[in-house]
Amino acid sequence: MTDTLFDAITDGRRERAPGFRRLPGGFEHTLAAWSADGPVAYVEADYFGGVGEQRAAVAAPAQ
Question: Hey, what's the torsion of the CAs at 20, 22, 26, 30, to 10 degrees?
């Protein structure tokens, strides 16, 4: 995620969701709104030299 995109979708808080490197503060509200038409996901992967981590946040439409 670029800094420009981060700044466009954050709710103004510079804090990150626990365990994530770039998930903007308040982005769970954006994911929930976007999921009105179907499931959406935010996915991070961070690897160097074959070692790394993956993280994901998923939102689905309310039933």
Answer: -110
Identify the three-state secondary structure at position 52.
strand
- Residues 41-60 have pLDDT tens digits of 889 998 999 999 999 888 88
Greatest alpha-carbon span in the chain: 42
**Burial of 10 from C-beta contacts in 10 A (0-12 / 13-18 / 19+):** middle
CA distances from 27 to 16, 22, 48, 49 (A): 9, 10, 26, 30
pTM: 0.68
